[in-house]
Specification:
Layout: H1 2-43, E1 70-71, H2 77-90, E2 99-113, E3 116-129, E4 136-143, E5 159-171, E6 174-184
Parallel strand pairs: 1-2, 4-6
Antiparallel strand pairs: 2-3, 2-5, 3-4, 5-6
Length: 185
């Protein structure tokens, strides 16, 4: 008797669940139709992979033309850190030749030989911190023009905005990434 009661109860529950789903399918069908229309409308503006340029064949962008391809200054601190990490460690090819705008703290990298820091800077960077300021990435940049350090650069620790073209270079058998033809905004 107990088994018959449990079986009857299970059948009633399944029937009620199926009945609830039928009414929603009709409504869901209408929602799906409008969602599909919206999706197809937005998909029309997204270029297909054939229409997109390949990273190796992309033309260098012009940082001074006012066009910024990757604007890190409008992202939240969590998103900007994620994007910079993606640029430097994960998907560099997608950013080659693109104009990048970033803000952060000005710093320099110096060579250390036998525990002694050399006086001349090796590289200049915009240090970008994450939301908790525990992790930071340095976006190296090379200013366009003839500049000398420290006369033509901001003070160490000053907040800066830099705009430049993302490129790679080889040094000591390693690949590094930086912004070239850069300018401070």
């Amino acid at each position: 008797m107990k088994q018959l009661f449990c079986l009857l109860l299970a059948v009633c529950m399944m029937a009620s669940l199926c009945a609830c789903g039928k009414g929603r399918e009709k409504d869901a069908g209408n929602d799906t139709l409008s969602s599909n229309e919206e999706a197809s409308a937005s998909a029309e503006s997204i270029p297909t992979p054939k229409e997109q340029e390949t990273p190796g064949k992309s033309k260098p962008s012009q940082p001074y033309a006012g066009k910024v391809d990757v604007d890190l200054t409008v992202l939240s601190s969590t998103m900007v850190y994620s994007e910079v990490y993606n640029m430097l460690y994960y998907d560099q090819e997608s950013y080659y030749g693109k104009t990048v705008k970033a803000n952060g703290i000005f710093d320099i990298y110096q060579m250390v030989v036998d525990g002694v820091t050399q006086p001349a800077p090796v590289a200049y960077a915009c240090i970008i911190a994450d939301a908790t300021a525990c992790c930071a990435e340095g976006m190296e940049f090379v200013l366009e023009g003839d500049y000398t350090y420290p006369d033509d650069y901001p003070e160490l620790g000053a907040e800066i905005t830099v705009i430049g073209e993302f490129q790679s270079y080889e040094e000591n058998g390693m690949t590094w990434y930086h912004l070239v033809n850069a300018r401070l905004a």
